[in-house]
């Protein structure tokens, strides 16, 4: 039984296979999920993720059941040995195997706490679903990764340049009104490394991604012929990039920086002057939602080089391929 909760579940060959199938199926709607039912469990809100997964199931001939934890569904406890005398009325040890008996696969969305990078890196909620489920589990974002987003990002790169191998891409930190989880930048970095890109990660000091994520990305890049460079010089990282990905995330929890640090680097907000340092024909990427003129300037988002809507569409295409791999392999 396959699960897809991290890029590691696919590996470089699997990433290449999913991107190839997603490309081949564009404009086609095979009924590859006839009579299949996906249970979608949301601990956190969603727009593109919910809509794209429901569209995948319906257009593929199947259907989806959507459950929102704490909103019409009991709050779920995931801690082992917990004394359940609070507001969490049901434990995942019962809830997950019960749900698994109703559906063909379970999809889960849960965010990081942003208070302990080491704890978030362990991905407790998603891994509890994976442990107790008797059907495939797919991540719709977790404390550590957002792998479906990473695949959509790299599909967009591949469609633009015809390949991902040796393509120079820049992941640049962006300011925000509050600290955000690191799942999206983690997954862009890991997927780009698995796809053989030359990746530059630009962030202010104190905003490092988790050491285990960086080590995994370095290992993937070494295998695929890509590279990973970390810098606090945004302009240097942007120079010659063919794809520029802007994303806000919070400081490392060992940095000593407080939550207000995300507002203290306003000059990192991406504008056309920044994009001018990238290669001719460079594209701009962002996972959405985006806070205009906080993370990214209007002039970047509204420029013809922006691929954020194409990128969001590609969530549908990679997730179709993923569901086929999970349920029909």
Q: What characteristics describe this protein?
A:
single chain, 329 residues, alpha/beta, Rossmann fold, 5-stranded parallel β-sheet, 15% strand
Polypeptide structure, described:
The protein is of the alpha/beta class and 329 residues long. The protein has two domains: 7-145 and 315-328, Rossmann fold; 148-311, Rossmann fold (3-Layer(aba) Sandwich), CATH 3.40.50. Helices cover 38% and strands 15% of the residues. The chain contains twelve helices and eleven strands. The strands form three sheets. A five-stranded parallel β-sheet has the order 9-8-7-10-11. A four-stranded parallel β-sheet has the order 2-1-5-6, sandwiched between helices. Strands 3-4 form a two-stranded parallel sheet. Strand 7, helix 7 and strand 8 (198-202) form a beta-alpha-beta unit. Helix 1 crosses helix 6 (147-161), helix 1 crosses helix 12 and helix 2 packs across helix 12. The termini are close together.
Number of domains: 2
CATH topology of the largest domain: Rossmann fold
Q: Trace the largest sheet across and list its strands.
A: 9-8-7-10-11
- Beta-strand percentage range: 15-25%
Summarize the topology.
Layout: H1 11-24, E1 37-42, H2 48-59, E2 63-68, E3 76-77, E4 90-91, H3 92-100, E5 105-109, H4 117-121, H5 124-132, E6 137-139, H6 147-161, E7 168-174, H7 183-194, E8 198-202, H8 211-224, E9 227-231, H9 234-238, E10 243-248, H10 272-275, E11 283-285, H11 298-301, H12 308-328
Parallel strand pairs: 1-2, 1-5, 3-4, 5-6, 7-8, 7-10, 8-9, 10-11
Helix pairs in contact: 1-6, 1-12, 2-12, 6-7, 6-12, 7-8
């Amino acid at each position: 039984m396959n699960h897809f909760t991290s890029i590691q579940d696919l590996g470089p060959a699997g990433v290449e296979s999913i991107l190839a199938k997603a490309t081949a199926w564009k404009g086609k709607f095979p009924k590859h999920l006839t009579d299949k039912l996906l249970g979608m469990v949301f601990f956190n809100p969603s727009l593109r993720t919910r809509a794209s997964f429901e569209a995948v199931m319906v257009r593929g001939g199947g259907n989806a059941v959507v459950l929102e934890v704490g909103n019409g569904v009991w709050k779920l406890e995931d801690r082992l040995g917990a004394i359940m005398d609070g507001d969490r009325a049901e434990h995942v040890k019962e809830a997950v195997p019960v749900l698994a008996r109703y559906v063909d696969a379970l999809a889960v969305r849960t965010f990081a706490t942003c208070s302990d990078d080491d704890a978030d890196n362990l991905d407790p909620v998603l891994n509890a679903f994976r442990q107790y489920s008797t059907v495939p589990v797919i991540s719709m974002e977790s404390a550590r990764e957002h792998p479906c987003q990473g695949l959509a990002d790299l599909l967009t790169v591949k469609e633009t340049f015809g390949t991902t191998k040796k393509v120079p891409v820049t992941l640049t930190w962006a300011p925000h009104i509050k600290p955000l989880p690191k799942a999206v930048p983690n997954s862009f970095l890991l997927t780009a490394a698995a796809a053989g890109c030359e990746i530059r990660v630009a962030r202010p000091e104190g905003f490092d991604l988790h050491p285990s994520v960086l080590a995994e990305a370095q290992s993937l890049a070494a295998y695929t012929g890509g590279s990973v460079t970390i810098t606090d010089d945004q302009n240097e990282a942007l120079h010659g990039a063919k794809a520029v990905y802007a994303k806000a995330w919070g400081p490392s929890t060992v940095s000593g920086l407080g939550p207000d640090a995300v507002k203290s680097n306003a000059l990192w907000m991406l504008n056309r002057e920044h994009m001018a340092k990238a290669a001719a024909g460079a594209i701009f990427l962002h996972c959405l939602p985006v806070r205009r003129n906080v993370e990214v300037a209007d002039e970047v988002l509204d420029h013809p080089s922006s691929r954020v809507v194409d990128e969001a569409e590609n969530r549908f295409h990679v997730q179709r391929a993923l569901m086929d791999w999970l349920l029909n392999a």
